[in-house]
Structures are given as structure tokens and as C-alpha cells.
């Protein structure tokens, strides 16, 4: 385990098993349909790579880059769109893939933004859902895990751009950010 990690919340195996289940469920729900999978960078990078390999579907992979945090521990609520979609989503089924939903402000921004482009449908898939911190109501269609309000990193999730490469999700030691 990395020296800055207090404890592991979801091990590599636990993540792999749950992502296989999510991929199967999504594949059943979109059977016979074309799906545009949108990874929200950078955090969802690792998750979306594993998730799509568990999808038995005709998918198109796209990415959008947004940022809300800066190098602090709290969401600022200010969403910056750094890179837009490459794909035209008019009349398409869109699945937005996130690593974590915290306040919900990022997804609220994205869903509102995408809706102006008239997709056939928009659904949301997140690996981790931190409902305790939610500021805006939203329907989340696919959830890997309900995560407690701890300072977690790994499997794509960073603190000041570090720890994204950890293969597990773990709690960061307080001494690292205090
Ligand atoms: C994180 C995460 C989500 C968002 C969730 O991204 O990947 O996109 O914050 O927080 P919210 O529900 O409070 O909006 P971040 O802005 O840290 O950028 P990153 O994906 O590059 O790590």
C-alpha cells in the first residue's frame, strides 16, 4: 500500500467485480442500440477504460474535460469546460461516466449543456456516489458504490493531481492535506 494511504476502501478485485456487473447491466439495457460513452476527464479515465471493456455493445467513446476543484479538498462550484465532445450527440444515446459524484455540480452543468444538443437519451454512470455532499438533486442511473464522506483517492481520483494511478480506492492520510 502507498505510504500516504490510511486504508483501502475498495480493493482492485472488488472494483473489478463491481465494474463487470455494471458493464453487464449497461449492456443489457442498451442491447441493440448505439451508445456514446462520455468519460469525464480526468478522473473517470481509469474507470471508463475498464467499464467499456465490460460492455458487449456497439459503443463510441468520447471524452469531455472539465474541472471544478483546483488543488483543494472542497468543490468550488465553478465548472470549467476545458475540452468539448468530438461527437455530435444529436439523437444519440449518451452515457456520461464519472469516477465520483460529490456536490453534483459538475454533472448538473454537463447534463444541462448536453440537453441543448438534443440527444435521444442521457444517463449517468458513476463508480462512486458521495450523497452526503450533494448540493443538487439528480437521478443517477448506474452506481458502483455509495461511498462514505472520507477523503478518498486512487483509481483515477486525485489529490492535487497525485494518486490517480493507484489501482485501488483508499483513504488519504490527514497529514498529507492538513
Ligand atoms: C472531480 C470528479 C467529478 C467532480 C465531482 O473532478 O471527477 O468530475 O469532481 O464533483 P462534484 O460532484 O462536486 O462536481 P475534478 O474537478 O476534481 O477534476 P478531475 O476529474 O480532473 O480530477
Query: How far apart, in Å, are the first and last alpha carbons?
Result: 21 Å
Q: Could you tell me the strand content as a percent range?
A: 25-35%
Indicate the overall shape: globular
Number of domains: 1
How many DSSP E strands?
9
CATH level-1 class:
Alpha Beta
Walk across the major sheet and give the strand order.
Answer: 4-3-2-5-6-7
- Number of helices in the DSSP assignment: 4
Order of helices and strands: EHEHEEEHEEEEH
What does this structure look like?
This protein has about 180 residues and is of the alpha/beta class. The chain has one domain: 3-Layer(aba) Sandwich (Rossmann fold). Helix content is about 25%, strand content about 30%. The protein is globular, with a radius of gyration of 16 Å. The chain binds 1-O-pyrophosphono-5-O-phosphono-alpha-D-ribofuranose. 1-O-pyrophosphono-5-O-phosphono-alpha-D-ribofuranose binds near residues 102 and 104.
Reconstruct the topology from this structure.
Layout: E1 5-10, H1 12-29, E2 34-41, H2 45-52, E3 58-67, E4 80-83, E5 93-101, H3 105-115, E6 121-129, E7 142-146, E8 152-153, E9 169-172, H4 174-177
Helix pairs in contact: 1-2
The structure holds 1-O-pyrophosphono-5-O-phosphono-alpha-D-ribofuranose (PRP).
1-O-pyrophosphono-5-O-phosphono-alpha-D-ribofuranose binds next to strand 2, strand 5 and helix 3.
Amino acid at each position: 500500500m502507498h505510504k500516504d494511504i490510511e486504508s483501502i476502501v475498495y480493493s482492485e478485485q472488488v472494483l473489478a467485480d463491481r465494474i463487470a456487473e455494471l458493464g453487464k447491466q449497461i449492456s443489457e439495457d442498451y442491447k441493440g442500440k448505439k451508445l456514446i460513452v462520455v468519460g469525464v476527464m480526468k478522473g473517470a479515465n481509469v474507470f471508463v477504460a475498464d467499464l467499456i471493456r465490460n460492455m458487449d455493445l456497439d459503443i463510441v467513446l468520447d471524452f469531455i474535460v472539465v474541472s471544478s476543484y483546483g488543488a483543494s479538498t472542497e468543490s468550488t462550484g465553478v465548472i470549467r469546460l476545458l475540452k468539448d465532445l468530438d461527437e455530435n450527440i444529436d439523437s444519440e444515446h449518451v452515457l456520461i461516466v464519472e469516477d465520483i459524484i460529490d456536490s453534483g455540480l459538475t454533472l448538473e452543468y454537463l447534463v444541462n449543456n448536453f440537453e441543448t444538443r438534443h440527444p435521444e437519451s442521457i444517463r449517468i454512470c458513476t463508480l462512486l456516489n458521495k450523497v452526503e455532499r450533494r448540493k443538487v438533486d439528480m437521478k443517477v442511473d448506474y452506481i458502483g458504490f455509495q461511498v462514505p464522506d472520507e477523503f478518498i483517492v486512487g483509481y483515477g481520483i486525485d489529490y492535487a493531481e497525485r494518486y490517480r494511478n493507484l489501482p485501488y480506492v483508499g483513504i488519504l492520510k490527514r497529514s498529507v492535506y492538513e
